[in-house]
Structure formats: structure tokens, C-alpha cells
Specification:
2% helix; 305 residues; mainly beta; Immunoglobulin-like; 3 domains; four-stranded antiparallel β-sheet; elongated; 49% strand
């Protein structure tokens, strides 16, 4: 990505309007933290004197400064700043117009360019209200029936303003976790049977609007083991899976993968009490068979090879 440099474009200098390659800083910093990209330009190659600089404060707190050394025609500076009122001040005497600069916010929007041909006197020359709402990324959810557990994971946004994450189950807040948290585990034992939606939202000290990052799954009302006369074989299985029940009358059979997604299955009941499931359509991996006798649910893991 290339951008036409507008700095000092009326000075008649041969360096004015030079094409500058901003690819590395634009792509690596866009949307990462409350970042500002400062592009400094010196078409006359005079450099900034050691006593001249641009100082930065956020809500009155000093966040450092930057300068352009002698003999440096161009430079780029990346700084992460918290949300609040950001003020930029010129220090060190009147800035002659051949020293120019542009400021870009974390969305790579141009928010300021130095005026030509007037220059900048000492003091605050630009104020910007910085509010950086960054969503989480890499969100994933899984349901492990045999463990009675929903697992959630995500990558936290790189923001100094992040206060933590709110965890929602079916639109109800169930927990708040620290900003360093990357995983959350919910014990589903005792939950009523039904469809469940889990969402994770980053929390900031100001109002933000995000698209929901959510995971949905079905959770049964109870899970028993197979000590009650139910036998599943072979395991691992390839084309067919046999379910033998001598003590219970099985009404329905379902197959779920490790992500809680239900897969279709074909069921054949015989007079011998054996249900034969065709599993040839399944991809290789770990699955769960969910059986019900009308009152209870029984879940067993098997491997499709």
C-alpha cells in the first residue's frame, strides 16, 4: 500500500509529494490497541533541532514526546495511548513549515496534518478525543457432554483501557473475568435441558458497540453412565455402531461431535434389542452418542476411524 505524501506540497521542493511505503506500519498496527501513527517529514533535510519536539498528554498525564533528528528526511512513530483527551504540544520555538507531520488513529484515519505555510507556535496545537473500542478475536466454544462443561476461549484485544470480559448465558450475565483471561469454563450440570447461547463481551470504561461473539449448543437435562446395561460396540468403529440395551427401552439416538454439533444418524431397531447406527458418513474423529429412554439421557463417547 502506498500513499501520496501531501507534506509541504506548495514549497516547490523536489522531495515534496514523494511516495512513501507505509505498508508495514499500517497493516501491523491497524486495529491493534489505541495506536497512533505519526509520519514525520523533512523535505529540506534540515532535521528538527534537539530542543524541538512534540509532547503528548492524555487527560493531563505525560505520555512522552518524539522528534525528528538532524539529517533524517522521514520517519514513522507508533505509540499506544489510552482513551481520553489527547493533547499534542509543540515545544522548542516556532516550527518552520519545511518540518511537517501527519497523525493517523488506530483505524488508519488521517486526523491531523501540519498547516502550510504558517508553521506551529509553542503550546497545544491539536486535541483529540480518543476512544478505542476493540473487539475480541479468535473466539471459539465447545461443549463436552461427558464432562458437563462448556469451554470458551478467545484472544484479548490489545488495549490499555480493557477492564475485563462479561460472560453471558442466554443473554444473562453469569460472570465477569479479568482482562488477562483467555479461557472460561461453565459447569452445565443441573441446567434445564434446552438450547444455550454463550457470549463474551470486552468491557471498557466507556460505551462500545460490538457484534456478538457467541457459541450455541444443546445441553441435555441429565447425563448417566452405562452401568445400567447399555453396551456400545465396536469402539473404535468405522461403518456401523451397535447399541445393545437389555434393561432399558431406548426411544431416540443422536450423535454429537466434540463441538456440540448434532449429526444425522440412521437407526435400525431389531427384535434382539440392538440398535445399528450407520456412521459411514461421519468424518474421522471423536463423537458422543446421546440416548434417551423418555426420562433420562445416557451419553457415551466413541471414535470413528
Amino acid at each position: 500500500m502506498y500513499a501520496q505524501n501531501p507534506f509541504c506540497d506548495n514549497k516547490g521542493n523536489s522531495n515534496a509529494g514523494k511516495l512513501m511505503n507505509f505498508t508495514s506500519n499500517i497493516l501491523s498496527n491497524k486495529g491493534e490497541g489505541c495506536s497512533f501513527r505519526f509520519v514525520l517529514w523533512d523535505p529540506a533535510n534540515f532535521g528538527w533541532a534537539s530542543y524541538t519536539r512534540i509532547e503528548i498528554t492524555v487527560d493531563g498525564v505525560d505520555y512522552g514526546s518524539f522528534t525528528l533528528p538532524w539529517g533524517t528526511p522521514s520517519d514513522e512513530v507508533i505509540k499506544l495511548l489510552p482513551s481520553g483527551e489527547v493533547q499534542f504540544s509543540w515545544v522548542g520555538g516556532f516550527n518552520h513549515a519545511t518540518n511537517c507531520f501527519e497523525f493517523y488513529n488506530s483505524s488508519n484515519e488521517l486526523i491531523y496534518e501540519s498547516p502550510w505555510p504558517y508553521g506551529i507556535p509553542d503550546g497545544v496545537f491539536f486535541t483529540y478525543q480518543n476512544e478505542c473500542c476493540l473487539p475480541l478475536t479468535g473466539f471459539e466454544g465447545t461443549y463436552i457432554p461427558e464432562a458437563n462443561q462448556v469451554n470458551l476461549s478467545w484472544t484479548a484485544p490489545k488495549s490499555v483501557d480493557l477492564k475485563g470480559f462479561d460472560i453471558y448465558r442466554n443473554n444473562m450475565l453469569i460472570d465477569h473475568v479479568a482482562p488477562t483471561t483467555k479461557f472460561y469454563y461453565d459447569n452445565t450440570a443441573g441446567l434445564p435441558e434446552g438450547d444455550y447461547k454463550y457470549c463474551v463481551l470486552p468491557v471498557y470504561p466507556f460505551s462500545c458497540t460490538f457484534e456478538e461473539e457467541c457459541y450455541e449448543t444443546f445441553i441435555p437435562n441429565s447425563i448417566n453412565n452405562y452401568s445400567s446395561g447399555i453396551r456400545i460396540y465396536p469402539n473404535p468403529a468405522n461403518r456401523e455402531l451397535n447399541i445393545e440395551s437389555k434393561a432399558l427401552s431406548i426411544e431416540s439416538v443422536e450423535i454429537y461431535d466434540v463441538y456440540g454439533r448434532k449429526h444425522e444418524s440412521r437407526k435400525h431397531e431389531s427384535t434382539s434389542g440392538i440398535i445399528v447406527l450407520n456412521i459411514s458418513f461421519l468424518a474421522h474423529g471423536v463423537y458422543f452418542v446421546r440416548l434417551t429412554d423418555g426420562q433420562n439421557y445416557y451419553i457415551q463417547r466413541f471414535i470413528k476411524y
